[in-house]
Amino acid sequence: MSSSSSSTLPAAAAPASSSVMTVLGILAVAVLLVAPFGVYPVFLMKVMCFALFACAFNLMLGYTGLLSFGHAMFFGGSAYICAHTVKVLGFTPELGILSGVLFAAVLGFVTGLLAIRRQGIYFAMVTLALAQMFFFFCLQAPFTGGEDGLQSVPRRPLFGFIDISQDIHLYYMVLAIFLFGFLVIYRTIHSPFGQVLKAIRENEPRAISLGYRANQYKLLAFVLSAALAGLAGSTKVMVFQLASLTDVAWQMSGEVVLMTLVGGMGTILGPVVGAAVIVTMQNYLAGLGEWVLVIQGVIFVAAVSLFRRGIVGEIIAIVKYYGTKKAG
Amino acid sequence: MFELLGIPPQALFGQLLLGLINGAFYAMLSLGLAVIFGLLNVINFAHGAQYMMGAFGAWMLLNYLGIPFWGALVLSPIIVAIIGMVIERVLLRRLYSLDHLYGLLLTFGLALIIEGLFRRQYGSSGLPYNNPLPGGTNLGFMFLPNYRAFVVVASLVVCLVTWFVIERTKLGSYLRAATERPDLVQAFGIDVPRMITLTYGFGVGLAALAGVLAAPAYQVSPTMGSNLIIVVFAVVVIGGMGSIMGAIVTGFGLGVVEGLTKVFYPEASSTVIFVIMAIVLMVKPAGLFGTAK
Predict the structure, then answer these.
(1) What is the pTM of this model?
(2) Which of A9, A130, A291 has the CB atom closest to B116's CB atom?
């Protein structure tokens, strides 16, 4: 993005030729299918949960141009509902996840109604404040277990007959959920609905003048994004068997912003790459305690100052640059 | 003694005073945010961290250099403001032409760095800071601790002086003009980039001053800023950032409301400001003192 007068977020790069993308997609899925035999499955599952979370977040920031600083409330709220229904009410995992997603969608609808009344910087502050309100609610509500959270959520058989108590079995469930969520986002972005969202991002008054009800589009995008963030949160509960205050705290909202920023906002794969980078980093730096916060801050500053397009965004820009050079 | 609605007056007025003190911090912080946003178009997420730096500055000046509270009240904000101005020159300046969101993200990163460094050095639990004005006055219906009275009066004075400077002096008129049309003001021969740096320094200094005032009232802790700044954001959404007096009135008012909630319905005291924000968004989306854009 040039530093001149442009004031929009980096535009989504045009998709490469679709056949190449299909081949790459199939390759990626194949790698993911065999990956748990080479890499620790829990780590991969964590990456996929956060990748889905970041993709859902990117639907708002990258494609609708609205920075939500409160996505932790959908991620963590859904986690609490899923953990509660499975642990206390005895739901099967798929029903627990479904309840979590439904809750996140309803929460997204309510908060979205409030938040879309303001734009730009205010939108970020409103979502952050609402998420903080939800955090205090979770801190005080009796069913969340306060500071302890909900621990040792059982991994009951999926649909009543598929055993997911083994990590390797659970891995394929998480993979299926991740691919489902990713495809939903992919389809959304490439649908007429997604095109309208991009139009609103680029020039809201013009989109309105063309007859689109911008607020309804934004609200629907927000609900979709919240529901998918909830899907990620509920799935995370199945992986770690834990829902806690960490999931709803503002730091979690900050982390998902960081993942999306590092990977490349407004790109489809950016949040996935960003999530992988940040989760890997957290894994290796876990022993460093408070330094993790400092390092995350430094990455934020570096990303904003030096590579605003993110890892994937920069790669796309380089490929495009050489592409046009060859063509010219 | 008389009682109001079953609440002993000492508790009522005590919480009211605490609410006023909180309100004073809300007012000073939202004032700084509004002034910075007006000229820089940046929402300073590091504002909470800078407030915390002000408090730690006072603590360090006392424990490492032996400078008492009254010295720190002047020195600490100046030091933090200088650090802020360096940050503005080196990092923030490059983002003015971009979307506002980048400024928010950059200052969020700065907040993480600052908080992380202090947590690493001093741990997450608070450090005590001695009350420079011990004792108090018995007003009959309540006991008024001297220091708390001082905080309310001092912050009120600071807020009103700021309002006066911005709304009633020549310097303030330059500032307001530059907020509207920086290019035209520049054309009249005023060094706008330097004004931007100084304005950021002023806003940051105001946050640090609030931090110094907070040090004896609360504990000095690395997390004191991030907890506060989110509430201040809600205050800013409620008040709108268009008006200086609006920021002051909203800040003090919400502090009092929060204090009263602590008396009558303590469970809701941590969320009441957010609830008010939600109601204001429904009724008057631009904020109480804001103008629709």
Answers:
(1) 0.90
(2) A291
